[in-house]
């Protein structure tokens, strides 16, 4: 398959230069097949799901529920009702923090997160802790961006109620040993949520092999549409959690005196979901499976290794995040320049990178820096584009000194 021709957005010029899109950790571009699914949904089957007795409602419901099974198999879940559709990783984590916090957190309890979490895996827990008088504990990481598992072990105690860690750091690229983290936590009877936002498009994920209790991700970071995400939760634990939001579809019976809740997964899917986007997620998964998860991983590994080597040719460039296990995220600074200045100059040369704290302010505090320039790669990126970035950096470096 000619991959780039599947992504029309990449064909354009920006400020007279061919677009080089290196902001994939923020969101990936969408292949034609996903765009076509959205068009087909809105031109042929748009309808509200589950409640209608007519042809379109039945078809939309069938495809929506088929996507649930697609996701189940994609991440190796035991049951399709363990897959809950949300708006994205942020909503998925808020759902767990809110429902789990409501049911299990109390005064003096502790929630363990890591020092490299996205704000989406910090703030929902802070809010839950604040409501219940619990507190956050933080797993530190070394200069290379590797989590300190000894420190993690020593953080676990009889007050720990849950561990919430990212599978892959969106700033440092570190792939965390989630299986080991789960084993350590489970040996103390503590459940684990894994934030999979930055892992899901880069490697094969099997939630049963990881053994986690929750796994959260966003469609838009895996070639799918914005507006859809997934919260996977183990059946036994989901059964015990109270609903997150109240509304249509999540109920069995409602009276003014008492309401009983629907079965899984509907208990957690209040209101009308973004049906077309869910169908687009199905197509995005098909796109990745057609390419092969292993092929995607090896292409991106090769590109990351090449880019890491070539970036070293730029005077004064420092990379943040040098863990042996990394995905395709490269965070760097040049000399004492501000990341925003680097990003702005690159933009004028048609190169899209992200600058700033990447919603991981504690990571920046850890290194004592205001932010980084982040280039992140996807399956459609090429070595030529990396060369283009390196040439541009060499060109602008003297302006930054
Ligand atoms: N977690 C990580 C590691 C992320 O990188 C991101 C987004 O960048 C999120 C959570 C939040 O994802 P979303 O904005 O799609 O909800």
Would you mind describing this structure in some detail?
The chain is of the alpha/beta class. Helix 1 packs antiparallel against helix 9, helix 9 packs across helix 10 and helix 10 packs parallel to helix 13. The protein has 13 helices and 17 strands. The chain has a seven-stranded mixed beta sheet with strand order 4-10-9-8-7-5-6, sandwiched between helices. Strands 13-14-17-16 form a four-stranded antiparallel beta sheet, covered by helices on one side. The model has no long low-confidence stretch (mean pLDDT 97). The chain starts with 12 loop residues before the first strand and ends with a helix. The protein folds into two domains: 136 residues, Aspartate Aminotransferase, domain 1 (Alpha-Beta Complex), CATH 3.90.1150; 256 residues, 3-Layer(aba) Sandwich (Aspartate Aminotransferase, domain 2). The longest helix has 20 residues. Pyridoxal-5'-phosphate (PLP) binds next to helix 3.
Number of domains: 2
CATH architecture level-2 label of the largest domain = 3-Layer(aba) Sandwich
**What is the CATH T-level topology of the largest domain?**
Aspartate Aminotransferase, domain 2
Q: What is the terminal-to-terminal distance? A: 43 Å
- Determine the strand fraction and express it as a percent band: 15-25%
Radius of gyration: 22 Å
Poorly predicted runs of 5 or more residues: none
What is the mean pLDDT?
97
Strand order of the largest sheet: 4-10-9-8-7-5-6
Which word captures the global form? globular
What would CATH call the class of the largest domain? Alpha Beta
Ligand roster? pyridoxal-5'-phosphate
Structural class: alpha/beta
What's the number of helices?
13
Largest sheet, in brief, is: 7 strands, mixed
Helix content: 25-40%
**CATH homologous superfamily caption of the largest domain:** Type I PLP-dependent aspartate aminotransferase-like (Major domain)
């Amino acid at each position: 398959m000619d991959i780039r021709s599947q992504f029309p957005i990449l064909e354009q010029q920006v400020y007279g230069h061919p677009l080089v899109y290196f902001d994939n950790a923020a969101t990936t571009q969408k292949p034609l097949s996903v765009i076509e699914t959205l068009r087909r949904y809105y031109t042929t089957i748009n309808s509200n799901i589950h409640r209608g007795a007519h042809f379109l409602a039945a078809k939309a419901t069938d495809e929506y529920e088929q996507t649930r099974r697609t996701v189940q198999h994609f991440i190796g879940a035991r049951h399709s009702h363990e897959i809950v559709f949300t708006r994205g990783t942020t909503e998925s984590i808020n759902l767990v923090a809110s429902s789990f916090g409501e049911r299990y957190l109390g005064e003096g309890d502790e929630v363990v997160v890591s020092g490299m979490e996205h704000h989406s895996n910090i703030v929902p827990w802070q809010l839950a802790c604040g409501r219940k008088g619990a507190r956050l504990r933080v797993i530190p990481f070394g200069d290379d961006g590797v989590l300190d598992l000894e420190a993690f072990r020593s953080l676990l105690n009889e007050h720990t109620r849950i561990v919430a860690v990212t599978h892959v750091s969106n700033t440092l690229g570190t792939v965390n040993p989630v299986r080991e983290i789960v084993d350590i936590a489970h040996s103390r009877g503590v459940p684990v949520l894994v934030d999979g936002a930055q892992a899901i498009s880069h490697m094969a994920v099997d939630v049963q092999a990881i053994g986690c209790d929750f796994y959260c991700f966003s469609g838009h970071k895996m070639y799918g549409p914005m507006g859809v995400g997934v919260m996977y939760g183990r059946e036994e634990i989901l059964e015990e959690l109270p609903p997150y939001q109240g509304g249509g579809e999540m109920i069995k019976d409602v009276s003014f005196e008492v309401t009983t809740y629907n079965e899984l997964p509907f208990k957690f899917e209040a209101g009308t979901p973004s049906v077309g986007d869910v169908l687009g997620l199905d197509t995005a998964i098909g796109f990745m499976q057609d390419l092969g998860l292993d092929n995607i991983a090896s292409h991106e590994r090769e590109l990351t290794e090449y880019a890491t080597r070539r970036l070293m040719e730029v005077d004064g460039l420092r990379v943040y995040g040098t863990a042996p296990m990394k995905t395709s995220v490269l965070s760097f600074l040049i000399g004492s320049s501000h990341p925003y200045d680097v990003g702005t100059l690159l933009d004028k040369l048609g190169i899209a990178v992200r600058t700033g704290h990447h919603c991981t302010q504690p990571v920046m505090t850890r290194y004592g820096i205001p932010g980084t320039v982040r280039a992140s790669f996807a399956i459609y990126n090429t070595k030529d584009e990396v060369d283009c970035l390196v040439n541009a950096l060499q060109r602008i470096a003297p302006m930054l000194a």
